[in-house]
Amino acid sequence: RSAMASPWLGLKFHGPLEVRPHAKAGGGRGVFTVRDISAGEMVMREEPVLRLLQREGSSAHVQLAELAVKSSDKKLLEKISWLHPRTLEDVSKEGLKAARARHGESAVRLSKELNKTRFDPDACLLIILKMQLNAFQGGLFIRMAMVNHSANPNLHKFQPGGNVDGDNPNASEARAIRDIKAGEEVTWSYFSPLLEATPTYQNHLFVHQHYVIPAHFSDQSRWPHPKETLEMKEASENDPDLKEFKGNVSTMLSSLERKLGQLEELLERKKITIDDLLGILESLPGIHLLGPRHVVRARAQLLVARACQTRVLSFGSDGESGETGFRDVEYAACMLEALREVEDIQSLYLPKTHIAVGATLADAHAALTFLLAKDRSYLYKRFP
Fold it and tell me: Do 149 and 108 fall into the same domain?
């Protein structure tokens, strides 16, 4: 491709990276290393050119598109023009049909607000799609938008304020989660580490983000299909409920993940306790059919660990004396057990240097330290 056809070829990075044509990737480009990179090394740092404003009544992608088209910064609009899709012709017929159904009204509204001086409805729709395919939760990053997705990534991207050094709350950074050879493409996962390998979640997110699921995508995952990881030892092959379940595996998992997402929100807002959570998880349809190393089970166990941690740290005691109660020791042990199971699942597909594995081990260390300090005899009895 020529520089005019692919203006991003001249895009400069602040790290050991460069953009190159990549025919098999979305947008026809990828980001590659120009030298060897060690695990843990920071390879990208960038501040968003557009920040997401939380506002009800409009999707995040539409909000960002509105900020873009109303901006007086000509350089910003030029940079956005580099992003995929560059024209609506770059979108499949099925994808464009879905895009018009989802965002058509927003595109028309936005065009009317601008009096069609610069953007007709199709131009506004194109900007919305650029935001949908390239923006992150923290906003729009031009350079980071060039990095492709992989189910087995070699980078981990931090949201603004989540960077390791903590010295720049406005910048998002990416660090290597394993050693990367010179000339290798750098990728990260658009999914949560615990969910990145589940085909059900892949399909859900790609339909939401890209409308069309790439045919080759499922081949990139090392995780077996959920049907192969479901444990149904206690069910009879002649059980009609089992047959119905086998025919609706994806529906069952999607339902479980939606409910887990709701529970995560409740826990974040401190609207649910660990005791409530355990009761709800016990009654969730289908959760007992998950194998011991299923990634959706790992998500549930992470939720349990966080709830236990909240209980121990927030309350600290069962009485008014301020001394740690026996139930707090039990919660710490429950947290440790949950994190041990999470680590077992993560070890199947995440490298030891992955930030998610480090976070799990750090939390497990905190639970273990608490138990050692408060009741060693209980610890040794619970974990002989």
Answer: no
User: For residues 338 and 331, what is the distance between their CA atoms, to the nearest angstrom?
Assistant: 10
Q: pLDDT digits over 308-365, tens only? A: 988 886 644 444 334 445 588 999 999 999 999 989 887 776 667 667 788 888 889 8
Per-residue model confidence as pLDDT tens digits over 7-45: 665 677 777 998 887 766 666 788 999 999 988 888 988
Number of other residues whose CB lies within 10 A of the CB of residue 183? 11
How many domains is the chain partitioned into structurally?
3
* Domain shared by 368 and 231, yes or no: yes
Distance CA 175, CA 104 (A): 38
Please name which of 118, 161, 154 lies closest in space to residue 17, comparing C-alpha atoms.
154
Please tell me whether the peptide bond between 16 and the residue prior to it is cis, using omega within 30 degrees of 0: no
In this prediction the pTM is 0.53
For tokens 């493409």, name the residue: 185
Same domain, yes or no, for 76 and 99?
Answer: yes
* Residue 340 and residue 242 share a domain: yes
The CATH number of whichever domain residue 40 belongs to comes to 2.170.270.10
With respect to residue 94, please indicate whether it lies within any of the assigned structural domains.
Answer: yes
Identify whether 40 is part of a domain: yes
| 12, 175, 320, 338 from 35: Cα distances, Å | 15, 15, 59, 39
**Token couple for 34:** 């120009």
Distance (Å) of CA 19 to CA 73, 89, 178, 237, 240:
24, 23, 20, 53, 54
Which phi and psi angles does 328 have, rounded to 5°?
-65, -35
| Single-letter amino acid, residue 217 | F
> What distance in Å separates the CA atoms of residue 294 and residue 348, rounded to the nearest whole number?
10
Domain limits for position 31: 7-47+141-188
- 30 with 20: CB under 8 angstroms? yes
